[in-house]
Recover the amino acids of this structure.
């Protein structure tokens, strides 16, 4: 199979949840009702071998314990997308046990593994600095966010494209995009920037989260959404920029990965 395509198939209700592949967040949502969906995860798989998938079940934003109706089940599905979108097999799967009415559970977690075979090998964030050794990490990350906001608001899109080069290389390679698809992906983002969107200030209560086994970081709203987002004042629409940052070894500033 020359283009194996891995997806997480999930069904969730009445909770905030996060699913990570190899400690990379592939889905985070705060769901008041019930949702079933699928999302691709190849961008979190850097090379063939054993992959980890972890799921965390959390209370709604502002709550201290899980809703008794909280539910999450998920599995990994493999497709072949070389010529069409063909289902091949289901891999790892798990469903959390129901939360009992009398229980006051603040969080539930589960981790399992699956084997993946991909036709590429990426360095990604693996050569990044261990962030536990970085002083003033929060301040440095906020500086990186502000630099991006300045570029977008000042319409310095060529420089913005340079900053996301590593990120786009991972996405294009792992998702088997053609050059035309890769260009359309970036151009579509810039078209959104030009459609009246401006970068919003980082929320005061944004939380720093680490990923990639301590080598990546991002600022998140308390509902799990990215703290880097744009707002269209006329339509009141929001555009999330869900980006991760790392510090390459030998450097001192955060870069997009």
């Amino acid at each position: 199979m020359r283009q194996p395509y891995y997806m997480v198939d999930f069904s969730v209700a009445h909770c905030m949840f996060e699913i990570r592949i190899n400690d990379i967040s592939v889905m985070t949502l705060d769901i008041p009702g019930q949702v079933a969906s699928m999302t691709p995860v190849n961008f979190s798989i850097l090379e063939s071998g054993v992959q980890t998938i972890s799921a965390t079940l959390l209370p709604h934003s502002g709550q201290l314990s899980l809703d008794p109706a909280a539910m999450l089940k998920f599995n990994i599905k493999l497709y072949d997308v070389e010529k069409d979108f063909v289902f091949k097999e289901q891999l790892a799967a798990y469903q959390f046990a129901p939360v009992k009415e009398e229980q006051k559970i603040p969080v539930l977690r589960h981790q399992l593994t699956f084997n993946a075979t991909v036709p590429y090998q990426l360095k990604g964030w693996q050569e990044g600095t261990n962030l536990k050794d970085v002083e003033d990490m929060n301040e440095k990350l906020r500086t990186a966010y502000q630099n991006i906001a300045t570029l977008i608001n000042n319409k310095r899109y060529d420089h913005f494209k340079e900053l996301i080069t590593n990120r786009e290389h991972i996405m294009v390679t792992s998702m088997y995009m053609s050059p035309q698809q890769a260009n359309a992906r970036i151009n579509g983002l810039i078209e959104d920037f030009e459609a009246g969107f401006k970068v919003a200030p980082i929320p005061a209560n944004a939380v720093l989260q680490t990923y990639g086994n301590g080598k990546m970081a991002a600022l998140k709203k308390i509902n799990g959404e990215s703290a880097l987002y744009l707002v269209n004042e006329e339509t009141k629409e929001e555009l999330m920029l869900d980006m991760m940052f790392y510090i390459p070894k030998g450097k001192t500033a955060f870069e997009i990965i």
Observations:
- Residues 4-116 form one domain.
- The chain has a mean pLDDT of 95.
- Helices lie at 137-153, 157-163, 165-174, 179-194.
- The CA atoms of residues 55 and 110 lie 5 Å apart.
